[in-house]
Amino acid sequence: MSQVKLAKPKDKCENCTKQCNKKQTEDGSVENTDSEEVNGQLKEGAAQLLLSACLSCDGCLSEEDTLKISQQNLEELERLLDLNKRCDSSKHKVLVASLCPQSLPFFAVQFGVGITEAAHKLCGFLKHLGVQFVFDTTLAAGFSILETQTEFIHRYRRRHHDCHALPMFTSSCPGWIRYSERILGSLVTPHICTARSPQQIMGCWVKDYFSKQQKLSPDKVYHVVVAPCFDKKLEAVREEFYNSLMETRDVDCVLTSREIYQLMEKRKMSSEELDSVPLDQMLGDCGEVSLVRHDGRGSEGFLEHVFKHAAKELFGLDVQEITYKTLRNRDFQEVTLERDGETLLQFAAVYGFRNIQTLVHRMRKGRVPYQLVEVLSCPGGCLSGRGQAESEAEGRVDKALVQQMEEVYSSMPVRLPELNPALKTLYEDWLQGQNSLEASKLLHTEYRTQNQVQTQPPHMQW
Questions:
Q1: Residue 100 is part of a domain; what is its CATH number?
Q2: pLDDT higher for 51 or 327?
Q3: Is the residue at 452 inside a domain?
Q4: Sorting pLDDT into bands at 50, 70 and 90, what band is 10?
């Protein structure tokens, strides 16, 4: 699939998919293999299995999916860059790169500089390659957060006559979405928030608003996203994010942080040699002037933003600080809003496959007390994505690297999306208002049960 050996059979498939449906014997019997979890990883014999590793495995991808994902690699990017140099200018494609905020700490640690300087050096490298525009996706995440907040309020208010209204599950993690659609089905999919992820909102903005501003046809823009997670490649090839009329995707290629770093090494370019070039602003002088992040533990902070918004909107309470209560482990935590001894809201953050399984079991038994659950497939959240946190030598999460990235990420200033004037401008100029039909069309999608996998793979059962 990817140059980083994402699905090399001898490394993974013979171990983690040998008990998958596709590997079952003709009579349907499956041998049992003991498994346990260590630090958020499933261990089956000598193999380590992350949820994302399982979901990205070639064993459960269609041939069409495999082909689409195989085109998202460094070779494809270099091919386009070379083509732009050789072909007639009328055939050029404008290359746009979008940087996920959770990828920037990886480069800050690798370069040994602050996060703003790391972003500027990364921008300088990409523009040196031939990328014309480099943005960060914080504004797109702001759209996703605001739309999630609004949807939660609507769901909460109809909870008594809609059995699928609550709990609401966040939708920004493609590993979780893929697992829900292919394995959990109707138990979960009606509960998933319909707001698009920051990546796909960014893709929509690039191929719609930005291309119009540049007087370009969307198919003349090639959009690359730099992300911490391999599963973002799967999200980019979803059918609903493809414009069949223009024959173009909102996101043409997803490259992980480590893939970009490998390209730097291939080009023999050290961080000291890279020029520092400021990122382009989505609204020119009206856009962001500095890198900011949203509340949260190394992800986009959907739980915290929705919790504070709901407390104010539903109960008139201003919540300044959120206190997490650790339950099973630091990747299964809950927050509660109380007044006069009464519990008004109860949210949970559930990260990692083992904790997701616990959540699903409770869901089946009708014992989920939460109104909202922020679900991420990677233990530790997005900073721990396999596309940057996994050591090249051992193939395991580098805990020291993750700790460094968490420290760098937390050093970024926080800005509420509600207070971002660029978002307000784009809602009006691009979407005709925050609650418009255009906003609903471009900022939302739907999740549904898929039938490719009829039963839960035995190695996922607990």
A1: 3.40.50.1780
A2: 327
A3: no
A4: very low
Residue pair 412/434 in contact (Cβ under 8 Å)? The answer is no
Q: Which domain holds residue 284?
A: 72-140+197-292
Residue whose C-alpha is closest to residue 374's, from 324, 333, 328, 336: 333
> What pTM was computed for the model?
0.84
Please check the confidence at residue 56 and state whether its pLDDT lies above 50: no
Q: What domain count does the chain have?
A: 2
Is the same domain home to 206 and 191?
A: no
* Residue 404, domain member (yes or no): yes
Same domain? For 181 and 325 the reply is: yes
User: Percent of the chain at pLDDT above 90?
Assistant: 58
Q: Last residue of some domain: 292, 319, 335?
A: 292
- The pLDDT value recorded for residue 451 is 62
Measured CA to CA, the distance from residue 79 to residue 337 in angstroms comes to: 53
